[in-house]
């Protein structure tokens, strides 16, 4: 799985109608879509997904936000996928994100930052398995 990563287009970016443009940036950058779905997290699911941040002061806000509307979830394939995708999305805070990155172009704020990208191969696998069964990957 070292050539795969997992992403979500987050609720505010979907609501603003940016999903198509973000998917275009992703595929134009050489990532192949292996699995894709339009779905919505319950508060409980959002809490489980971001459980690593449970002790952080923004956890409650993060869970509310991620459950606030539908998202797109996807598994992506490319050599060096995790690292290259983190480069494509840019820094967590769009004010720090480089030109040409997804967050620079579409994020509203550090909290509402348009797009998620896995931070390790191990988490890419865990996160992909959270959303997709084997028969949903091609
Ligand atoms: P993601 O995991 O969504 O790809 P990231 O790895 O860049 O983002 P994390 O540190 O894992 O950043 O934080 C997870 C998410 O929590 C961020 O993407 C953002 O939505 C939210 N977040 C992070 N820091 C803050 C903060 N200081 N205030 C509010 N929300 C925050
Ligand atoms: Mg993260």
Side by side, the strands of the main sheet go 2-3-1-4
Report the bound ligands by name, code or SMILES. adenosine-5'-triphosphate, magnesium ion
**Number of β-strand runs:** 4
Task: Please tell me the CATH architecture by its name.
Answer: 2-Layer Sandwich
CATH superfamily: Nucleoside diphosphate kinase-like domain
The first-level CATH class is given as: Alpha Beta
Are there runs of 5+ residues with pLDDT below 50, and where?
none
Roughly how much helix do the residues carry, as a percent range? 25-40%
Number of domains: 1
Give structural notes.
The protein has seven helices and four strands, in the order βααβααβααβα. With 138 residues, the chain is of the alpha+beta class. The chain has one domain: 2-Layer Sandwich (Alpha-Beta Plaits). A four-stranded antiparallel sheet has the order 2-3-1-4. α3 crosses α4. The mean pLDDT is 97. Bound molecules: adenosine-5'-triphosphate and magnesium ion.
How are the elements arranged and paired?
Blueprint: E1 4-9, H1 11-15, H2 19-28, E2 32-39, H3 43-49, H4 59-66, E3 71-77, H5 81-89, H6 102-106, E4 115-117, H7 121-131
Antiparallel strand pairs: 1-3, 1-4, 2-3
Helix pairs in contact: 3-4
Adenosine-5'-triphosphate is lined by residues 53, 58, 61-62, 92, 110-111, 113, 116-117, 119.
Short synopsis of the structure:
The chain has seven helices and four strands, in the order βααβααβααβα.
